[in-house]
Amino acid sequence: MKVLSRKKMIQVNGGLLILLALSVIGCTLLGPVPVNLSQALENFFSADPNAEILFRARLPRVLLGVAVGGGLASCGVVLQALLRNPLACPHILGVSGGASLGGILGLILFPVGSSTGDQLLVAEISWVPLTSFAGALLSMILIYRFSQVHGRIHPYQLLLAGVIFNAFVGAIIMFLNSIVDFYQAQALLFWLVGNLSTRAYLTVGFIWVYVLLGLFWLWSHCLSLNLLTLGEEGAMQLGVEAGVTQRQIFVASSLMVGAMVSVSGMIGFVGLIVPHVMRVIVGSDHRLLLPASFLAGGIFLTWADTFARTLFAPAELPVGVVTAFFGGPFFFFLLYREQRKRLFYEPSR
Amino acid sequence: MLLEDTFKMRSFKRSLPVYFFLSLLAQWFIHEGLAKEPSAVTAGMAVPKRIVSLAPSVTETLFALGAGNRLVGVTTYCDYPPPAQKIPKIGDFVNPSIEAVLAQQPDLVIGVPEGTDQEKVRLMERLGLRVLVVSVSGLSGILSSIKLIAGALGKEEAGEKLVLKIQTQMNHVRKRIEGARRRRVLMVVGFRPLVAVGKGNFIDELITLAGGENIAAAAPQPWPHLPVEYVVAKAPQIIIEAGMGSEREESRKRWADLKSIPAVKEGSIYSYPSDKILRPGPRAGEALEELARLIHPECFPHSNRKHIEESGCESSKP
Amino acid sequence: MSPVVEVHNLSFAYGDQKVLKGISFTVARGEMLGILGPNGSGKTTLLKILSLVLTEVDGEVILNGRAIQNYRRRDLGRLVAVVPQESQVSFPYTVAEIVLMGRAGFHGPFALEGKRDLEVARECMEATETLGFADRYLHELSGGEKQRVIIARALAQEPEVLLLDEPSTFLDIRHQIQIHELVQRLNRQRGLTVLSALHDLNLASLFFPRIMMLRNGEIYREGTPRDVLTEETIQKVYEVKVRVQWDGLEKRPQIFLSSPPSS
């Protein structure tokens, strides 16, 4: 009888953790510019270009990529389980869009301008993630409401609601694009497609805190998520407080998405691809799927970003372009596979 | 009834994304097929009296040629010279409004290919407007565009004079910095993302003429996004933040962390708030001088002099 | 012995629509009660109320001597297990994983299943003859096999009461009988109290010693199959004309359809 055992948990998560560590090291060492590692280590504390490239420019970006990639994948896992829809992910559902709007509003309401480093830093770790969180939460609630038909979540309705919401957000961002100046417009577009850039360690640290908080909060609901596969009522009959679980998951994932979007814009497809691949590898038990997807998401995004930084060196692509490149075909592949082997388990009548 | 049934079929629902994608593709093909090439201005047409400009550089050129009073429509970005601000606006640089243009009943519309939506240009021609598209890519492009515009206005002499003036300004700068060692320069127009001036940009030529070596010249795009590590690796001696509207202190703080960069170490981070340098127009000569003053301050009298050891140019010649 | 289930004057409405109108009944430990009635008579609603899915009710529901509102959902899950009409799982889980879901009430959210959980699961799968599919995916199984797995999951909760909501409606006749025989066996061997909502009058008659017929949210008739399944009752409740004949040693009534209305 193959069931989830402690051994499997340790093996899978341990293995992924090692892979992640290797990826962090590898991606920090890789880049459009060659770096002399020994020099960098020797001159760690002095103003040496090698050290600065590795530890000031690349490493914070790689660490940010892990947090964002892991966070997006985790939210994808959880939203797919909660909404019982394999196509759910923060991007498609419009949650990232809502977070973006929230973040943009935050920047407008508390103008930060092209400001001093300090002011911007404070904004980055406090109210921008918070307004993004509010935006994410609101959009989550809206879309959830719209996708219910007689109290049951209808998968196509859900996707439709998400697509429409995304179009709406896109329109607002384009409107903003038309009234800001050329350079701010570039920044907006950059946000729209999703990017990772070098940030201060303080910012990276705070984002990690938000993401880890959210992750552990979500982890406590993994058993309930397993049970929810039997339907809301079925889960309730097994002891799950479905309403409470739903609310907490919405809040926790909105917190994560808000924090991530505020710093990296709308990176798509990570929350879609990674959970699917991991589900095939480790199974559907969320107690393992969640942490495994977090680690795998971190690995995926850091490599995608390394790709983005090196492909057209010296210029860099926004990482959202790379994930979309992989994600788009993968999405079609998913739909195709669903035709042959039922992924959407619909009732027989 | 049949249509409803078709919609209900699962396989139809699933193939919807494919249809959508195909229809997008089809639209694109049809669009390109119907598009025409923009036509050139034929000689022998009447001298235009009502002109609409679709770009700030064109507006500046027209004023510099003394034809500013013929302008009846400009973009929202056209703010120089000051009289231009009073002229009715016809939309912005990237997206001019066809209606607003038509409303001014121009007999000539002048635009640039690097920026204005070419679709709009084609549309204007189809609607019977006379459109002149002048390329301002590169310094030579700027100069020839001035001549072209002057020609279309029947002001060839003024055109020659203007071109000469600009060339003189540039020669003046070249003489001043003669002998000075090239300095590695990075010019950025945005910080997040880090948008730099690349090779395909006339400003890159300006930098070179001003005695600088653009560290982003390896990127062929005009406005490449650069990763921070690239800047660290290329160790520019001067960093100029152009058109970002920020104060010098702010610029400094942004880069403060990356102490290995010579520009940071020596404090040679300048912020250049105005847009002047970014307009491929008649002020290119002035822009060049200002750039040169930033890159080689020691070659200019009365400028913000910094003690720089190896320089080479003869200092403080009036 | 005090009854396991006591219902006093239970009423429930979905908005303005009254579904249950003051019903009262008790169920003794180890009893098998079949609940019959046309669509909309309140069968499913009643089962949902008994499993705390619907909570805003008028009247009293007492389980094991305690009012149902005083139960925490988790604790109720260890007393009452529900087998729904059909199960659609949204993601691929194996049979073993599904059965182990029944053990959720026995450990914390972060804990993994322990030895005892695995033992119980194995035993429940044996009892329902599903141990052979333990590592197969639920969606690969046939309807009958799936229902047996769901029953195994319900058993894994180690409940005292088993609620079944039309458990064999979507199954063919062989599997219908298989399921009912299984439930009967569980009732006899383990002393499980069983309440089952049913559509099929004949199966109810064969397998349930006590039947409750609901009509418009009220209990129309209650008693043995012989008491309840009479031609007039069926005419009144279902508005169809049937013939009832007694069958077998125990003289269980079997319903025969009369000729179709048109001829």
Which descriptors apply to this entry?
heterotrimer, A: 349 residues, ABC transporter involved in vitamin B12 uptake, BtuC, disordered C terminus, B: 318 residues, Rossmann fold, four-stranded parallel β-sheet
The CATH H-level homologous superfamily of chain A: ABC transporter involved in vitamin B12 uptake, BtuC
What order do the SSEs of chain A take from the amino end to the carboxyl end, as H and E? HHHHHHEEHHHHHHHHH
For the record, give the distance between the C-alpha atoms at the N and C termini of chain C, rounded to a whole number. 53 Å
CATH C-level category of the largest domain in chain C: Alpha Beta
Count of structural domains of chain C = 2
Main sheet of chain A? 2 strands, antiparallel
Number of domains of chain A: 1
What CATH architecture label of the largest domain in chain C applies?
3-Layer(aba) Sandwich
Would you tell me which CATH topology of chain A applies?
ABC transporter involved in vitamin B12 uptake, BtuC
What oligomeric state is this? Answer: heterotrimer
Rg for CA atoms of chain C: 19 Å
Overall shape of chain A: globular
Strand order of the largest sheet of chain C: 6-7-8-3-9-10
Residue-averaged pLDDT of chain C, rounded?
89
Q: Write the CATH homologous superfamily of the largest domain in chain C.
A: P-loop containing nucleotide triphosphate hydrolases
| Distance between the amino and carboxyl termini of chain A | 31 Å
Mean pLDDT of chain A comes to 84
Question: What is the H-and-E element order of chain C?
Answer: EEEHEEHEHHHEHEHEEHHEE
Question: Structural class from helices and strands of chain C?
Answer: alpha/beta
Tally of strands of chain A = 2
Uncertain regions spanning at least 5 consecutive residues of chain A: 343-349
Could you please describe the fold and organization of this structure?
The complex is a heterotrimer of chains A (349), B (318) and C (263). Residues 343-349 of chain A have low confidence and may be disordered. In chain A, strand 1 (148-149) and strand 2 (152-153) form a beta hairpin. Chain A has 15 helices and 2 strands. Chain A has one domain: ABC transporter involved in vitamin B12 uptake, BtuC (Orthogonal Bundle), CATH 1.10.3470.10. Chain A starts with 5 loop residues before the first helix and ends in a 9-residue tail after the last helix. Helices cover 74% and strands 1% of the residues of chain A. Chain A is globular and about 65 Å long. Chain A has helices at 6-29, 37-42, 49-82, 95-109, 117-125, 127-146, 155-179, 182-193, 201-219, 222-228, 232-237, 242-264, 270-282, 286-310, 319-340, and strands spanning 148-149, 152-153. With 318 residues, chain B is α/β, with parallel strands linked by helices. Chain C folds into 2 domains: 1-79 and 159-220, P-loop containing nucleotide triphosphate hydrolases (Rossmann fold); 88-157, no CATH class. In chain C, 32% of the residues lie in helices and 27% in strands. Chain C contains 9 helices and 12 strands. Chain C has a 6-stranded mixed beta sheet, sandwiched between helices. A 4-stranded antiparallel beta sheet of chain C has the order 2-1-4-5, covered by helices on one side. Chain C has a two-stranded antiparallel sheet with strand order 11-12. The radius of gyration of chain C is 19 Å and the shape is globular. Classes of the chains: A mainly alpha (349), B alpha/beta (318), C alpha/beta (263). Chains in contact: A-B, A-C.
